[in-house]
Amino acid sequence: xxxxxxxxxxxxxxxxxxxxxxxxxxxxYEYVNLxxxxxxxxxxxxxxxxxxxxxxxxxxxxIQHVPELASTVQVLVDERRHDMGRFxxxxxxxxxxxxxxxxxxxxxxxxxDLYPPAIPELGDVARKSxxxxxxxxxxxxxLWRIPELDPTAxxxxxxxxxxxxxxxxxxxxxxxILFEKFVTLLAGRVGQIxxxxxxxxEVGVSSTTLGEWLAILESSFLVFRLPPCTSNISKRVVxxxxxxxxxxxxxxxxxxxxxxxxVARDPLRGNLFENMVVADALKQRANLGKEPRLSFLRTGxxxxxxxxxxxxxxxxxxxxxxxxxWHSDFSAGPMRFAAETPRAVSPTxxxxxxxxxxxxxxxxxxxxxxxxx
Length: 373
Description:
By secondary structure, this protein is an alpha/beta fold. Among the domains are: 7-113, Rossmann fold; 119-220 and 245-268, no CATH class. It has helices at residues 18-25, 37-45, 47-53, 69-79, 95-104, 119-122, 124-128, 131-137, 141-145, 151-170, 176-187, 196-203, 207-219, 248-254, 260-265, 269-287, 332-340, and strands at 7-11, 30-33, 58-61, 87-91, 109-113, 192-193, 223-226, 242-245, 294-298, 304-311, 314-320, 348-351, 356-357, 363-366. The strands form three sheets. It has a six-stranded mixed β-sheet, with helices on both faces. A five-stranded parallel β-sheet has the order 2-3-4-1-5, with helices on one face. A three-stranded antiparallel β-sheet has the order 6-8-7. A hairpin with a 2-residue loop joins strand 10 (304-311) and strand 11.
């Protein structure tokens, strides 16, 4: 992208590895971290003086602290419109930053999303880790770089920092306890269709407010919505999205689970496994620089496909099962979808067992070897 656009903007959740990636890929660029107060104050007060001190090519890390800097970047880009890759911007995706970048740098920047590592990126580490440990630890880079870190304590600090630093800036939350209660309730409904009207009564605020809070969580990369898809299978399909956590380890923490053995026994273990797989599909698509194009199907009669991947006019039905043992009925849903949906390809079951390919066209893939193409 840096060979095709004057600016590359990388969004992603905090601690997902944005700084590590840009400093590794662009070692010859000057690096400016806008978390640093001196740099941040100069950028906010005098953008011209800032760029006189920090001339491109330059990496501007954590630009959400000074989103108005994008306007000056636009001016500098337009002065040398054909010079590619002069500015690399990173930021935790927040509404004001997203709006500023889309308005000021439209047509001038490529936008990429960087999530925590996908399972294939962990290589042998993922293959050697048991499933419940993977779900419990999650995929934040720091937890894999320093294996002795306690995931429960790490996610507690991560969430508290998010609430104290980001939430208070983004929305007027008088009582952060209610916001935290809402996020905890979402963790208890991971992989399910969320009814904000029902949750409003439990949290004690209006469904409109919960909708705003959900949008904030989504723009901060803490959760994402999986939209429903349409299908020839039935005219009556569920039209509300499902909600998943970008980082399954955070959902585990919010559920109060403090060890892999507790994950194994929890009634939501299957939901957490599904969250891990769906989030991994999202990461793999983002790592290719592509739109997710992921959805799910649920009809009024109860027929469901956990994940539907669309690309090039084709659709791939994916059933997700947390079982380690193969059962023939796992393939029924993907086979029906493939039979009744035009241009359906590669019906797949992702589970915790061995890879297998069947004569009916269904593939069974262990979640560690599952690949989005």
